[in-house]
Amino acid sequence: MADFETPEIKEFIGIPALQEGSMAHSSPFIAYTDHQEALGYPGELVENWQQVALDKMDDLRSRYRSFQVFLDSCVKCGACTDKCHYFLGTSDPKNMPVARQDLLRKVYRRYFTFAGKYFPKLVGAEDLTEAVLDDWYSYFHQCSQCRRCSVFCPYGIDTAEISMAAREIMDAVGKGQKYCNEIIGKVFTVGNNLGLPGKALANVLEGLEEDVEDDTGVAVKFPLDVKGADILLVTPSADFFAEPHIDGLIGYAKVFHETGASWTLSTTASEAGNFGMFIGSYENMRRVSMRIRDAAKELGVKRIIFGECGHAWRIAYSFLNTLVGPFDFLDQSYPIPQHILEYTWGELEKGTLRINKEENDHMTLTFHDSCNVARGSRMGDYPGGQFDYPRNVIKAVCNNYVDMDPKTTKEATFCCGGGGGLLTDDLMEIRVKGVLPRATALKSVVENEGVTHMAAICAICKSQFTKTLPYYGFTMDQIVSVHQLVSEALVMKGSEQEAELDGTDGDDTEE
Amino acid sequence: MSFLLLIALVVFIVGVGLKIKQYAQTPAPLKIPTTPAPVTQTGVVFRMAREVVLFESLFKSNKWIWVFGWMFHVSLLLAFFRHLRYVVSPDSFMWPLVSNVIVQSFGQYAGFAMVIGLLGLLARRFLVERIRYISSPSDYLMLVMLIVIGVSGLMMSFVSHIDIVQLKMFVMGLFGFDFQNLPESTALIVHLLLVVVLLLIFPFSKLLHAPGVFFSPTRNQVDNPREKRHLSAWAAEKYNDHVDK
Ligand code: SF4
Ligand code: SF4
Asked: Are B125 and B132 in contact (CB under 8 A)?
């Protein structure tokens, strides 16, 4: 799929001149009949699709205040026009957040507002034609629902909400996206996005136990389906096999081991990700979340902790309680649910973990704030904790840390370019172009501050970066998991690392 | 003219009222504040106040749009206060508040700032390619209309003065349904006609951003989903709140 040009990486993130239609050809594969039907959608484009689409739009605006208010309130001020990484990377004006919204808004206006019904030309209202539907399919799959635009809009208009609604409308008329819908189906049938069956999962975990023991001499367990464990760990399934995700998983396990926690994974809830959000479906998001509630009940755990994943954490933090709460059967003295970084940082603060920062001295780190964590969730008990927790943990286990340009971090962070259900090979072009702003910011700290690695806390970010940053001259192994850094620096009791450290006469870095 | 103004006012009040009712009654089923967000209700009030008074997000976003937009809105507010002298009766306790020199002269000169702000916004709409791309005819027309309202107002203030005693009688008469004649002035006719148009289109156009901002879930929600369960009526009903309590 290399029939496109990788944009040139400049010194600064610039605003491109418009190139109309430059990404009109980018569309993901359409879902097959059985993917659609498994989620309760029509198998293919229905006969009276216009009517169905309009009915759905009407239904959504009566059930989602965000949708109704956002459709009405945009004043076309243009403040958001240069905020989307896909626009910055592609120059296609329809990737400007307001223009993306307008694809839907013009139809809303035409059919549901006085001005659009009687003066369509004046207010830019348009009929819902096949061409419009094609545009929707194309451009609402060039939005990673990262919410960056919503930070900068004077009314907080969140294009992510519009994209979600658009995708739900397209599902309702039978034009769903293969990648998302196939994956959600797998979660229902197998338990995770990758369709990794229980047996395979058990094998992977066994293999990891051997690896860690070989490495450290400590028998760190990776428990699966252990009834009566205290903690249920729900983590993205990429953590079970992809690089550098898996090193993060090893990190969680070591931290649990070292703090003496009783924990378990679950076969049926072996996936933190929830693509139900990407397709805007409360129904599917709830069904996917229900597995986690069920697993927690079935295993009789007291706490639920989520592994490193961006959108999963948004859903866990912001929606889980709404969707499948209340969690009155869990131990109320812990946050429900909790992020693994909240757990690890808590332990680091307590001093239960022995850290040898020098293990990470060969690297200079920077950190990529995941969009969904940054702008759709929180960690800790104060606003902005989601920015501090990962940085605190990294700085606690590494000596060399540098932040990227503040215009590209924290609440202004750029999406990795692969979120929102775009992490699929059929969207490679938009993914490569969408990573441009992040790549630019990264390049700058690499060249000026000697940064060698970028840490991330999201399965999608990690996969997207390892795949697309090489287009810009970076290497795959420059992307690391935050808990991978913890794993490297953690000196477990009774480990070879401990012996080495205490055996040699140089002083250690115990805190 | 009296008739037109009254109709426009009714349409405005009823139209915006209905919209507000719609916004208020439409549930927000999920917690979607753009984070970092306040964790208390008081915090949300402050966030909203910063948004409405200072245009905080716009300030973060684009200084030019902020300068022009803020200038326009603040001037509009000041000009509005100045206009209160036409509706407040001199015996009212409000009179000293609206008739004092500060309100009146600020209001008078605000007209210039308002027009400058609007011209700035209009210029951007023409000159910045990205904004031109997203603009439809109504977006330009609305700015032009506001500019003409501002300029015609300034004309009456600084160029050809009108008989404001008669104007006041007209306005006071309006609300008592005792219709009086308008002072003769083209500027005044233009001014008032366009205000009529403005009031009429308000509930049917992007001017709804004014009530809309208060209902924007990304700005008005408290960030406390773990502490407090948020559930919309339709979801509770649809899933029978599904929970085996
Ligand atoms: S910043 Fe908000 S109001 Fe302005 S154009 Fe974008 S979506 Fe519309
Ligand atoms: S949500 Fe993110 S990807 Fe979507 S339009 Fe806004 S900035 Fe672009």
From this structure: yes
Tell me the per-residue pLDDT of A220-249, one tens digit each, with 9 for 90 and over.
999 999 999 999 999 999 999 999 999 999
- Give the Cα separation of A422 and A180 in Å (integer): 8
Mutate to test the pocket of ligand 1, among A69, A149, A153 (most ligand atoms within 8 A of CB): A153
Please give the radius of gyration of chain A, using alpha carbons only, rounded to the nearest integer: 23
Domain count, chain B: 1
3-class secondary-structure state, position A8:
coil
pLDDT tens track for A407-423 = 999 999 999 999 999 99
Model confidence pLDDT, tens digit, residues B205-222: 999 999 999 999 999 999
**Record: contact A79-B51, CB cut-off 8 A:** no
Query: Is the distance from the beta carbon of residue A157 to the nearest atom of ligand 1 less than 6 Å?
Result: yes
**Cβ contacts (< 8 Å) between A155 and chain B: which residues?**
209, 212-213, 216, 219
| Domain end point (choices A176, A195, A221) | A176
Structural domain span for residue A69 = 33-176
A197 and A143 belong to one structural domain: no
A72 with A207, same domain? no
**ipTM, two decimals:** 0.94
Q: Is B136 on the interface with A (CB under 8 A)?
A: yes
- Assess whether the C-beta atom of A79 lies below 6 angstroms from ligand 1: yes
Place of tokens 């010194």: A11
The answer, yes or no, to whether residue A510 has pLDDT greater than 60, is no
Query: Are A250 and A193 part of one and the same domain?
Result: yes
Percentage, residues of chain B above pLDDT 90 = 76
Q: Residue B204: give the domain boundaries.
A: 2-227
The Cα A438–Cα B244 span in angstroms is: 45
User: Any idea which residue has 């993205």 for tokens?
Assistant: A236
DSSP labels, A163-183:
HHHHHHHHHHHT--BHHHHHH
Q: Which residues contact B77 (CB under 8 A, 6 or more apart)?
A: none
- CATH number, domain containing residue A151: 1.10.1060
**Rounded CA gap, A295 and B97, in Å?**
65
**A415 contact partners, CB below 8 Å, separation of at least 6:** A85, A144, A146, A148, A371, A434, A438
Q: Is residue A4 domain-resident?
A: no
A353 located within any domain: yes
Provide the shortest C-alpha distance from residue A354 to chain B (in Å): 31
Judge whether A118 lies within some domain: yes
d(CA A93, CA A112): 25
Residues A143 and A211 in one domain: no
Domain shared by A74 and A123, yes or no = yes
B218 touching A, CB under 8 A? yes
User: A324 CB contacts (<8 Å, ≥6 apart)?
Assistant: A286, A289, A290, A292, A293, B242, B243
Main-chain dihedrals φ then ψ at residue A490, nearest 5 degrees: -70, 130
pLDDT at B216: 97
The total of other beta-carbon atoms located within 10 Å of residue A351's CB is 10
The tokens describing A127, both together, are 């009929």
What does pTM read for this prediction? 0.94
The CA distances from residue A375 to A254, A277, A314, in Å, are 29, 15, 9
The burial of B169, by beta-carbon neighbours within 10 Å (0-12 exposed, 13-18 middle, 19 or more buried), is given as middle
The closest CB to that of A121, out of B19, B137, B205, belongs to B137
Q: Write down which residue in A112, A146, A176 finishes a domain.
A: A176
Residue A416: inside a domain, yes or no?
Answer: no
Residue nearest to atom 2 of ligand 1 (CA): A153
Question: Ligand 2 pocket, A166 CB below 6 A?
Answer: no
Per-residue pLDDT reduced to its tens digit, B2-26: 889 999 999 999 999 999 999 999 9
Is the peptide bond between A326 and the residue preceding it cis, with omega within 30 degrees of 0? yes
